[in-house]
Specification:
Chain lengths: 573, 257
Amino acid sequence: MATKLPKVPVVIVGMGWVGGIIAAELTKAGISVVGLERGKSRDTQDYYHVHDELRYAARYDLMQDLSKETVSFRNTMKMRALPMRTYGSFLLGEGLGGAGVHWNGQYYRFLPYDFEIHSKTVERYGKSIIPENVTIRDWGITYEQLEPYFVKYEQMAGISGEKELPSNIGQMSTPFATAAMKKSPAMKLFEEASKKLGYSPYVIPSANLTEPYKNPDGIERAPCQYCGYCERFGCEYGAKADPVVTVLPVAKQSGKLDLRTHANVTRIIHDGKKATGVTYVHTPSGEEFTQPADVVIMAGYLFTNVRLLLLSKLGKPYDPQTDTGSVGRNYAYQINGASTSAFYEDREFNLAMGAGALGSSIDDFNGDNFDHNGLKFLHGANIRFTQTGLRPIQYQPVPAGTPKWGAEFKKATIHNANRVLSVTGQGASMPNRYHYLDLDPEYKDAFGQPLIRMTFDFEDYDRELVKFIAGKTKGIADEMKATKTEVHDSIKQYNIVPYQSTHNTGGTIMGSDPKTSVVNNYLQMWDADNVFICGASNFPHNSGYNPTATVGALAYRTAEGVQKFLEKGGSLV
Amino acid sequence: MANDKPNQPQDESRRRFLKYSGTALGGVVLGGVIGGLVGANVKQTDKDETAEPGKSGTAAENKDYNQALMFFSQDQFTTAEAAAERIFPADDSGPGAKELGVAFFMDHQMVSQYGYNARDYMLPPYYKAEETQGYQLIFKRNELILLGLEAMNQYSNTKYQKPFAEIAPEEQDAVLTAFEKNETGIKDFPATNFFAMFLNLTMEGAYADPLYGGNRNMAGWKMRNFPGNQMSYTDYIEKEEFVKLEPLSLHDHLELG
């Protein structure tokens, strides 16, 4: 029998970026918050010995322990889903700060086009351009409405970037908090080549601080050292913005945050119209607790958000056969695979040096910044060169046709270790009627509860996008004064084995129609007005960008919504 | 060997790192300190140039009492070492898997959480998977590697009448290729899975921090001018020319009591 705890105003499930931001905003406003995190506590001191590629990058030290819970996967509804037994395609964060600890810090506001993708696409091309089964929809919020919340995140995290941005991306009411990242010689080659072709390159906005910075909450941090260990690692300097060094200290200082680690939430308790709290297991003791609350905020990674709704039977599960229901709908990902490698026989670059968000990019072929007439795909990709710090276990560059092992391989990989620059496309992923999340009928987690099941594949329009974007990456690379270039322009089926991207989206999407979306534009659940769900799970599709900027903005929007709800109650829209 | 020099002031660098990080959180800029630290470390390692990475290894004067087997038998170790050497052979650019200690790395990994699949989802049921669904064997990695090494010897004995470690290098390559392509004819053995894991372990053993038993004397890193574990590249990141730094390992950052 679960021990019932005293009721609190707000309980948050998951203490990553979303949970941290909301906790900071609510506690600053004097509202008491219980924060539940199923992993362990963490701080900067844990990363003094973090420059260990084997432990953190190859053995996934910071990631969720899959022996306790994973995701099952199949390409199509005809297949049997099997569990992801070991990491590959994407990495699930766990512990205080969540995936916000092991990110790279690349910061892109989604495009104005993204938020009104359906209207703008139909307006320009007519409905017939939308490929069969593609379920794009407007987000129920516009870029202009979300703009102030982007600003809040940027000021909090100290986001760096150029003063002048290209006109083909969302404009900013307030400049970036800090100056842009330094430019490496390879970035200059990319920018010069792009300009020569008439494109508009800019330095990637970054959450790796570029100068000492004191944010509006009084949190001070020191700058990035370009040490080359960001993605999959925590930052030993606290230079990379993460929840543990930015928002969580603010919430803690308020005295209003009751943070409980090793608290694994298993159910949202509700009567079909309102939630009354959550049930969680304190994992070290196995003891079960009920935490009553006026407001329940789901702030987990998308798999957790969707899974807990389904396990709790809250909201209507999505059914692809009938195209009804909402929970689990519009799962999307990132369409990578378009790239060109530029090989240099005459020079070497300092490629071990870098930062997670060091790089330059263009958006001339992202969103609807180019004419899609005659093309068999929607949206596009941010095309970039990044210098994130290349490490030897996971990076062994060789020209096509080189054997995978042996004398010739060794010679080629050592020769090319610092001689290859990659221009890559990060492609947008369109939602599809048959790409969705539900509960696995067979596989269970360590508590005996069903795993979340993913049904996802690459479609013909994705392959068209990759082919098109690859051509553009080659165009740029060919102008980068390389000895030779090699283009990669095809993807096959989605395969969960090779690492691709931890930009999984959808499942509790936002929108203006309660029938097909889970939350409104305050991220308030249609079916239970005291439940807020926030994260990349709100994205109705995924853009050609990293998701954290938009997740962060939505978290600030949610925090505002929760305050409004606590004041007056009812639906906020 | 670099780590045999007892007077190397590693404690000092550690203290400065702690000081820097502590101060960094307080928000004060100390770019000068970090630059000085990197410079100091480079100088220290410069003095150790007599170490000659390629020449260490099994010679008596370099006897390392911290090095022995945790998992493999002597024969398994010898087979693994011979196979890894063909995958990553010694050449003009530097030492191969054998001299780098790759087989020790593999041995040690096999008793780690990785070898036991401790952080993998291992609950039943097990079904035959599509290629897109990844590893679905009930076998743990440290069971798979033993089967694989045994299968390599079995295949080698049948075809060449000698165990794997004793056949000619070209013959060893032929055996490895048969495993890579799943053309061994050995029934019910996932040769391709084994080979992929073995290949992966070989590269990890060549390039992981030396603390794991491979990449001896950081020679794997030196070959490809990888600087290992450095505190800061702020002063170099904009430089046009290629900057060669003597690598540092995690040992260089350890505060020894």
